[in-house]
Amino acid sequence: MRDLPLTRKDFQRLAELRSKEAGALVRSRNQIGAYYLGGYAVECALKACIAKQTRRHEFPPKVKYVQKLYEHNLTNLLQIAELDTKLENDMQTNTRLAANWGVVKGWTEQARYRTSGLRGKDLHAAITGQDGVLTWIRQHW
Fold it and tell me: pTM to 2 decimals?
């Protein structure tokens, strides 16, 4: 385990890895695991976008801001990454992206405690592909 802070590149790699793992779980019909890891792929991608905004040797802002960086709320992370307005604009012209965000934004880390009722296949489809949320985020990281 490394003690160094995670970098933008680390978060990009983690997003790709978690997405790939979610796809493997979908193919093996493990819906719950696929859902959980698919959401983490999006979270890591958004954190890569946030990391892009930071400067070396910059003192972090107020404690409340820093605490929000460690939360798992995708909508909040989208705002911190300053992509919320861009997503809103893009969803007006891309209804598939809008539908996909509608699926993804409901993800929560609490899914790890669920044993049924999660549609990992639907979440994975919403993050991958031409109009997928993860695909869209990659354009900004």
Answer: 0.87
Residue 1 has pLDDT above 60, yes or no: no
Owner of token pair 């639907």: 122
For tokens 């698919």, name the residue.
Answer: 38
pLDDT tops 80 at residue 60:
no
Q: Which residues neighbour 57 within 8 Å (Cβ) at sequence distance 6 or greater? A: none
pLDDT at 80: 94
Residue with token string 């793992």: 21
User: Residue 12 — φ and ψ, nearest 5°?
Assistant: -60, -45
Task: Locate the domains of the chain by residue range.
Answer: 8-138
Share of the chain above pLDDT 90, in %: 73
Contacts of 98 (CB under 8 A, 6+ apart): 91, 92
CA 52 to chain centre: 15
